[in-house]
Amino acid sequence: MDLLRKTIEEKRQLMISSAKIWGINSKVTIQYSQELDLLLNIAQSLGLIHIPDKIQ
Q1: How far apart (Å, rounded) are the C-alpha atoms in residues 56 and 41?
Q2: Contact by Cβ (8 Å): 4, 48
Q3: In this predicted model, what pLDDT tens digit does every residue of 4-29 receive, in sequence order?
């Protein structure tokens, strides 16, 4: 499970870097965001993380 957490953090950093370089609406940034969402969904389904229903 540490590998999943590491992969999530790496993908998050790639997404942030991409957004800084190409903007948040670039195809590359959106692709990283979608990949990160998938990883987070997997981690959540395994009970490794809790994502709140709404952000306050």
Answers
A1: 21
A2: yes
A3: 999 999 999 999 999 999 999 999 99
- What is the overall mean pLDDT for the chain? 91
Least Cα distance to 46 among 11, 15, 4 occurs for 4
The residue extents of the domains of the chain are 2-43
Residue 38 makes CB contacts below 8 A (sequence gap 6+) with none
Q: What is the amino acid identity at position 35?
A: E
- Pick the closest to residue 29 from 18, 40, 37, 38 (CA basis): 18
Q: For residue 48, what are its two tokens?
A: 């490794």
**Any alpha helices (H) in the chain, and if so which ranges?**
2-22, 27-45
